[in-house]
Amino acid sequence: AAAEQRCPSCPEASERRLLEEVAKKQLLEKLRLRDRPRLAHSVPRSAVARALRRLHRSPGVSGEEEEEEEQGYEIISFAETPRWVRDPHLTSPSSLGLQFQFSQAQDRDVRILQAQLWLYLRVPRASLTLRIFLAGEAGPAAGGNRTLLGERRLSAAGSGWRSFALLPAPQSFLGGQSRTLRLELESSGDGRDVTAQVNASWSHQPFLVAKVKVKEPDHRVAKR
Amino acid sequence: SLRCSQNSDLCCRKDYYVDFRDIGWNDWIIKPEGYQINYCVGQCPLHVAGSPGMASSFHTAVFNLVKANNIQASGHSCCVPTRRRPLSILYFDRNSNIVKTDIPDMIVDACGCS
Predict the structure, then answer these.
(1) Does the beta-carbon distance from B89 to A22 stay under 8 Å?
(2) Using CA of residue A160, residue A166, residue A172, residue A175, what is the dihedral sign?
(3) Does the CB of B91 have a partner CB in chain A at under 8 Å?
(4) Contact residues, chain B, for A40 at CB < 8 Å
(5) Residue A189 CA neighbour count, 13 Å, CB half
(6) At residue A22, does pLDDT exceed 90?
């Protein structure tokens, strides 16, 4: 950099600029991004640090056969501002809607190997049973068809981060065009609704950790 | 696999580190802070054709063929990467999701003559 200030047209400076352009092009190409991402909204550093700590803790993908033409990704997605009862996707008045936005490239096969939901819960003295559903489509046509992805009875009173494995991994939300995952949380236990138990504030945003495999279109091997 | 030095124009590995702050990408790339964009450069005269930075059976085989057939330098031997490693990267995508992946064959570790 010092050399560059002194003599911007010298070979070192032009080589440096050329290599930086090559590095940008190489990174975008390998990450299959058309351009560098412009972040829709910033994420608090504390939320990033907390989520990364849990990413390292989540079990590796064991026994998943490695197909060389598949690229493995781990994605942490923070819930957008939680939707309360007004959300047309929700089927019961006391449930909490969480919405996650994924931006997987449309033209590639994405397989979800694992998905875990992390929530900051205040568990009352009595026990609490939490159910997690994949919300149905919006509007009257939907009829509230939702899929149970996880259910757990929590008896240890107190507040803290809890993880819920979503099984079967909600493959459908990456298969469609919307790339939006809507979850609906419901609780039963001491009678208060789930909104009193889940801390979905900005500092304790719920987040999802997903392990996915992406098959490249040009690698689709015709099965003989 | 030899690093380039001033006193040789033979095939070697040129090291170059790109810092993401210098290109203004440290706002969306969380880790690492930068990476080695090494590349291969230099001559591959016939007597080193097929040598990945040091003598090897492949080089001996090529050299014997050249001698046995008295091949003039019709074809070219090129200075190419002979060993590369992946780059682990953590970044924000456009929806502010955090994505972690390993980009295969991203960093040139060694060069040699084809």
Answers:
(1) no
(2) positive
(3) yes
(4) 94-96
(5) 24
(6) yes
